[in-house]
Amino acid sequence: MKILAVEDDPVAQLVPEASLRQLGHEAVLAADGAAAWELLGAARDEIRLVVSDWLMPRLNGLELCSRIRARGPDYIYFILLTQQTPTDVNHEEALTAGVDDFLVKPVNLRELRMRLRVAERILGYTRQVRQLESCLPICSYCKNVRDDQDYRQHIEAYLNKQSGTNFSHGVCPDCYETKVRPILRDAGLDSPPYEEMQRRIE
Question: What does pTM read for this prediction?
Answer without folding.
Answer: 0.62
